[in-house]
Design a protein that fits this description.
Helices cover about 35% and strands about 15% of the residues. The protein has about 230 residues and is of the alpha/beta class. It has a single domain, classed as TIM Barrel (Alpha-Beta Barrel), CATH 3.20.20. Strands 3-2-1-8-7-6-5-4 form an 8-stranded parallel sheet. The longest helix is centred in the first third of the chain and has 14 residues. It is globular and about 45 Å long.
Length: about 230
């Protein structure tokens, strides 16, 4: 069975009103969910902390029932996050899933996995592997293969925000994870997504579908959603 491709815009949350506006836009354009992020702003200041982000998430989960709404809480360690999540949180995305392909034991990743199990949270865990602003990974395919034991969705990126990953890197990671989903979280646009569609299952996108740091662009979102959802292998 071929897995459906998903588009999940990343919303840099400023406040409830702004987050709701962008959720409405994303869902109206046919997106499969959204990630809410308490990202640093353009001046490098963290304006929103994880407890505020989760409060906003809780409100939006009530206002958009049955919609997939995940979070990326950048100011808390991955292993500490799960205890704060409830059943309304559809997904958790962390930038560094602590996978080290150079080692036979994955102690830090094991701790994260145990924290998830202890919490009884049932959402999807997206873990950053060979991800931007983390340690340079020399063997992304090996890291991806190991990562399938510790997360639901192996998630990679290019070298920085707005920068696409090398297609060959993404291809090798997808071949390594096999039937398990692979997500990409940087540099995707309507102009380059065709290169990645054979290999990527989940597209987490912000820069390529936005007209500012905090606001999605309806036309760009709809265009990218249409391309992703109408793509057919072969």
């Amino acid at each position: 069975m071929v897995q459906a491709k998903r588009l999940i815009p990343a919303i840099h949350v400023l406040n409830l009103e702004q987050a709701k506006r962008n959720c409405e836009l994303a869902f109206a354009a046919g997106c499969d969910g959204v990630f809410l992020i308490n990202h640093e702003n353009e001046a490098g200041v963290r304006e929103l902390f994880f407890n505020d982000l989760l409060d906003i998430h809780a409100t939006l989960a009530e206002q958009f029932p049955n919609r997939w709404i995940g979070v990326n809480c950048l100011d808390l360690a991955a292993a500490d996050l799960f205890q704060h999540l409830d059943s309304t949180v559809s997904g958790l995305w962390v930038d560094d899933a602590e996978i080290d392909e150079r080692r036979s034991e994955q102690t830090a990743a094991e701790q994260i996995l145990k924290a998830k199990a202890d919490s009884n949270w049932q959402g999807e865990y997206f873990g950053g592997v060979a991800f931007k602003y983390q340690r340079q990974v020399q063997a992304p395919a090996d890291a991806a293969r190991i990562a399938t034991n510790y997360m639901d969705v192996v998630t990679t990126s290019g070298s920085g925000t707005g920068t696409a990953a090398p297609v060959e890197k993404v291809k090798q990671m997808k071949l390594a994870v096999g039937h398990r989903p692979l997500a990409i979280a940087s540099g995707i646009t309507a102009e380059n997504v065709d290169q990645f569609l054979p290999w990527v299952d989940v597209f987490i996108v912000a820069t390529g579908i936005s007209h500012s740091f905090y606001e999605l662009d309806a036309d760009k979102v709809r265009q990218l959603a249409d391309i992703i959802h109408t793509w057919r292998a072969g």
